[in-house]
Amino acid sequence: MKLHGPIIMRLRLLLLPSLRSKLHPPPRHCCSSSPITNGVASRRRFSTEGSAPRPVIGPDSVEVLGYSYPRDDFTNVTPKILEKVGRNLHNQSHHPLWLIKERIKAHFYSSYMGRWGNPLFSVHDNLSPVVTVEQNFDSLLIPPTHPSRKKGDNYYLNRATMLRAHTSAHQSDLVRSGLDAFLLAGDVYRRDEIDASHYPVFHQMEGVRLFSNHELFSQVKDGHQLSLFESGGRRTPQKQETHTLEAVKLVEFNLKQTLTRLITNLFGDLEVRWVDCYFPFTHPSFEMEVRFHGDWLEVLGCGVMEQELLNSAGAGNKLGWAFGLGLERLAMVLYSIPDIRLFWSQDERFLKQFRVQDIHQPICFQPLSKYPPLHNDISFWLPDDGFTENDFYELVRSVGGDLVEKVSLVDDFTHPKTGRRSHCYRIVYRHMERTLTQQEVAVVHGQIQQDAESELGVQGRY
């Protein structure tokens, strides 16, 4: 079973999920109201506290969280998605995502203290999900041609502004503000397939820690003779060209020890293994897997931060690590929640199960009545000018919303004479709180057929 997320991006980039809390307000640098150009709103606000005006998609602009953004040829955010902006499930007391976040916060607060006995890691969990493309990609060294930037994989307000695809979009700003150790949590948005473990809005937590020369080597014998950096070095699978091997090995050890302690705190004593991987913003990079119910389960991604990223954020004299994880996937495992749509449920039978006195209290979710599914197929010829499955999934979500449990491709046919290609998808409908009728599903399914032809240029084979 794979987990959402990652420091991350599609290509299985680490979902560097972000932790942060009101205990330490966001640094002033991140909250400043300053002009933004290139099609972005005239003011920038990071906080999402308080009630915000209802999002509106107009003919010329998109209004979200009280700000207006001009539309252009890249605008693809939908009303269904904007309805989720500002819900902040990770900040709703006794929501399962809040419980996971609070457990991680409590672990870091109790385990890592600063010089004066205060928590070493500051926590930030209320930064606006509206970010610039530069924040989401360029600041993380993600190349302009990287597939994770595709319009089909992201929600864009316009060419310059988007709903963040990962909480790492704030990493550079927070490092630039002078933070050396922080956790960050928030909602992230990605166009994706439709099934019980994928949803276009989910939540991430990430952690970052930076070390000065003294901090890293203070406990090492003759540490004053060691250095974070070397000149004339070369990049190898073990390190970056500017780092000394001894510095990287100490940072790597600290990172893996920190994360092993965290996962043990959440899951209990489990077998852990590390898998080498690739991310644009860390090197070396790793994924942690745990043995859970007999299977190896990926729980997070991490690595030594690319020095170029730190240099550009004004922390070029330090070396650091970063990790990211997906809150939904952890909650689904820890609490045995079978369907990711449940996190958005307002059903009291779901919510009351997580109102516990102690955030560490074991919880095993008791499923609500399993209402029967209804499935309908939709088959159509693909247009000659190209077809993207994520566009179809997004259309289905926009029309069917959370009534849709799963969409799967059941047939991919190419006509032997004409060369025309057709797809047949099976759409499974299931309400989380009541029994659906075929009559009401037929209305939704008919609208999907109609919109697919008018918006995607397909030709129905109904």
Poorly predicted segments: 1-40, 42-50
What integer value in Å does the Rg equal? 23 Å
Q: In order across it, which strands form the biggest sheet?
A: 4-8-9-13-12-11-10
Structural class: alpha+beta
Distance between the termini: 35 Å
Amount of beta strand: 15-25%
* Main beta-sheet strand count, sense and barrel state: 7 strands, mixed
Helix-strand pattern: HEEEHHEEHEEHEEHHEEEHEHHEHEEHE
Q: Percent range for helical residues? A: 10-25%
Could you give the count of β-strands? 17
What is the mean predicted local confidence, pLDDT?
A: 88
Molecular shape: globular
Number of helices: 12
Structure description:
With 462 residues, the chain is of the alpha+beta class. It is 24% helix and 24% strand. It has twelve helices and 17 strands. The strands form four sheets. A seven-stranded mixed beta sheet has the order 4-8-9-13-12-11-10. A four-stranded antiparallel beta sheet has the order 15-16-14-17. The longest helix has 23 residues, at 245-267. The protein is globular. It starts with 27 loop residues before the first helix and ends with a strand.
Secondary-structure map:
Elements: H1 28-31, E1 56-57, E2 61-64, E3 67-70, H2 79-82, H3 96-111, E4 122-124, E5 130-132, H4 133-136, E6 156-158, E7 161-163, H5 171-176, E8 181-189, E9 201-211, H6 213-217, H7 245-267, E10 272-279, E11 282-292, E12 295-305, H8 307-312, E13 319-326, H9 327-335, H10 348-351, E14 374-381, H11 389-400, E15 404-414, E16 421-429, H12 438-456, E17 459-460
Parallel strand pairs: 4-8
Antiparallel strand pairs: 1-2, 2-3, 5-7, 6-7, 8-9, 9-13, 10-11, 11-12, 12-13, 14-16, 14-17, 15-16
